Amino acid sequence: MANLQDNKKVLRIDNVVKRFGDNTVLDHISFDVHQHETVALLGPSGSGKSTVMKCVNLLEQVNDGQIWLGDTDITDPRENQDKIRSRIGVVFQQFNLFSHMTVLNNVTLAARKVHHWSREKAEEKAMSLLKRIGMDQKAKEYPDRLSGGQQQRVAICRALMMEPELLLLDEITSALDPLLVGEVLEMVGELKRQGATILMATHEMSFAHDAADRIVLLRAGHIAENGSPEEVMDHPTDPETQAFFAAYNRV
Amino acid sequence: MPKDFDFATSAVEQEREEFRRKERLRSHLTSVVSSLLFVALVVVVLKNSPGWPRVKESFFSPEYFAMAWPQVLEGLWLNIRVLGVAVIGVAILGTSLALVRMTTSAVMFPLRVVARFYTTIMRGIPMIVVLYLIGFGIPGLKLFGRIDKAVLGTIAVVMSYSAYIAEVLRAGFQDVHPSQRASARSLGLTQTQTMWYVIIPQGLRKIAPALMNDFISMQKDVGLISTLGAVDAVRAAQIVVAKTYNFTPYIVASLVFILMSVPFILINDWYSERLRKREQTGGMV
Questions:
Q1: How far is residue A23's CA from residue A27's CA, in Å, rounded to a whole number?
Q2: CB contact under 8 A, B198 and A88
Q3: What is the pLDDT of residue B4?
Q4: Nearest residue to B231 (alpha-carbon basis) of B216, B218, B242
Q5: CB contact under 8 A, A114 and B183
Q6: What does DSSP say about strands A9-20 and A64-69: parallel, antiparallel, or unpaired?
Q7: Which residues contact residue B208 at a Cβ distance below 8 angstroms, ignoring those fewer than 6 apart?
Q8: What is the pLDDT of residue B145?
Q9: Is residue A40 within 8 Å of A215, Cβ to Cβ?
Q10: Which residues of chain B lie closer than 8 angstroms to A97, CB-CB?
Q11: Which partner for A117 in A26, A111, B44, B68 could form a disulfide, CB atoms 3.0-4.6 Å apart?
Q12: Please, which residues have CB within 8 angstroms of residue A208's CB and are 6 or more apart in sequence?
């Protein structure tokens, strides 16, 4: 396989600083995500993983530095933020499906309202996505009739609908029954094989190890490690990194 | 309780079911007895009051009841029309106020201040004062020529109720979890689209019982337009009272208002119950 690091950069995080009050959550963070690459963002709770995700998705404003999506500086206030958001697919920890809409309407909403597709065209595409994950039978159901794993898979479909340049997965298995985690991770693995570009914050160490091309380990708002799973997880040299993974292995 | 399935049950369950059946029977009997006792108590107290015969004659006279009925009913038609127009007016003005108060853009700042000022002031003024201000103040300006009293009354009702409804709506919209907004915006929906397709439909579901309650309250408050001289159900009753010195027409007016509100109260109870059941599926307490 060609080196993914040679691919063009889909996401470039450049010296990003984020503060909440006088608390510096991200302190000059820089890393890239290349096309077809899966980057896992690891770190203890409070290390800034979610903040990185929110800054990339423009749910939070950075206090310094730049974030580039392709050739667009998304931290530039002159850019159309809604346009940028529609180029990124996001899946949240709590699924966040729209509870008053059927599965099908959840998946097609953005296509119909933001991209002005006809209902027929949007539903055709949505049904083919749902069929791939075996959820086409549930298209007319409301989210509260589905299991957590099913809801999360629908949420992934919703994020994939407009073929985003980048997929953000923010601890998407943290709210799931351990038995349902597998079906969601399997779907992420499938997306990766199809060439999706993924940035995921996760606590699933073994999944990160197997699925990610690169691990970015955050510690107290700094990047502690940035390398292949073998380098960072199997043969860490830094004592604090060793302690972090050792703690997970004990659980 | 209707049974969907007929399962063979064990002796333990049969015994429990038997106990529950007896308990239910006992509680039904208790409620029947206590209701009868309560009614008897009220009757005894009324019958033994020294003024009862007079009160009975002046409030519950069958002849005056029959006499006032058609006129009150005719007046009620005005109430119904005023209510119909006022509901539409309140929906439009109330929603606009709520949405304006929730905007964040700089352009909307002056409107935001006006909306805030309006809802604060309007919720503080007694409705009857609003009626007087509109009903006698606007004609006093002599700008528009003669305006029908019912129209002025409708304007006053809309102005007063919009302030309350706006706040109920705002509470409902803001009660929708922020994560719903976050996921809508992540899909690229604009602020306005997020509001329209996600926040408003979810918020309305939550506050539907409160809105229905305000509607029921408005239904009887349209009776206040009688203070301006519009001949509605209350005013019609008043006219009969003035002619006959008997208060039974007021009972007639109360009755027609109650009859008008009962269907909506039942619908509201049914809907609230359905919402409650759906939100707390299962559980015995």
A1: 10
A2: no
A3: 62
A4: B242
A5: no
A6: antiparallel
A7: B271, B275
A8: 81
A9: yes
A10: 183
A11: A111
A12: A40, A42, A200, A202, A215, A229, A233
Let me know: does A97 contact A151? Beta carbons within 8 Å: yes
* Pairing mode, strands A72-73 and A64-69: antiparallel
**What is the 8-class DSSP label of residue A7?**
S
Per the rule left: phi > 0, alpha: psi between -120 and 50, beta: everything else, A236 is beta
- The answer to whether A47 and A221 are in contact (CB under 8 A) is yes
Cβ–Cβ < 8 Å for B158, B92: no
Nearest to B162 by CA among B104, B79, B77, B99: B99
How many Å is the Cα radius of gyration of chain A? 18
Pick the CATH number of B60-282 from 1.10.606.20, 1.10.3720.10, 3.90.70.10, 3.40.50.12780: 1.10.3720.10
- Out of B187, B201, B205, closest to residue A86 by CB: B187
Residue closest to A59 by CA, chosen among B186, B201, B125:
B186
pLDDT (0 to 100) of residue A2: 57
A-B CB pairs within 8 A amount to 56
d(CA B161, CA B222): 11
The position carrying tokens 């439009």 is: B92
- The nearest alpha carbon in chain A to B177 belongs to A96
Average pLDDT over residues A150-167: 94
What confidence score (pLDDT) does residue A160 get? 93
Domain ranges of chain B: 1-48, 60-282
Tokens of B198: 């996600």
Pairing label, strands A88-91, A166-170: parallel
ipTM of the complex: 0.86
Q: Sorting pLDDT into bands at 50, 70 and 90, what band is A183?
A: confident
How many angstroms separate the first and last alpha carbons of chain A? 34
Q: Which amino acid is at B192?
A: T
Structure token digits, residue A120: 């027929």
Local mean pLDDT, 10-residue blocks, chain B (285 residues): 69 93 95 96 93 92 93 94 96 94 88 95 94 91 87 95 95 92 94 93 89 91 92 94 94 93 90 76 53
> Do β-strands A166-170 and A198-201 pair in parallel, antiparallel, or remain unpaired?
parallel
Alpha helices in B107-148 (DSSP H): 109-124, 127-132, 138-141
Question: Å from B262 to nearest chain A CA?
Answer: 29
Give CA–CA dist B169/B167, Å, rounded.
5
Tell me the chain A residues in contact with residue B180 when contact means C-beta distances shorter than 8 Å: 96, 98-99
